[in-house]
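Dock zinc ion; give full complex structure.
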Amino acid sequence: MKPAIRDLLIERMKILIKNAMLNVRSNPELAERQAILAKRLCTKYRIRMPYELKMNYCKKCKKFIVPGFTARIRMGRSDIKSIRITCSFCNHTYRKIIKKQIPIGQ
Ligand SMILES: [Zn+2]
């Protein structure tokens, strides 16, 4: 596949997921559909979903999860710099190591 097409698809996925995040509170069904659509683009064109988009899906039940809404986020110990994401659908928790510090409440 041409890199330009791949970029275009990733751009489209980003828009879908961004919209899904905006819609999740007012219209969770629409959000879920948009999230599924984004994922389907990956399977259809056999491209790897960028990491920052993939982390919006639960690793276990594969549902679209939104931090602070359908997923709980807890900060790990500060020296490790990680966050723990708990999916509220299946209660699966996974840890995400973050390289740069994210400013929370400061
Ligand atoms: Zn889950």
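Observed: Residues 58, 60-61, 63, 87, 89-90, 92 surround zinc ion (CB under 6 Å).
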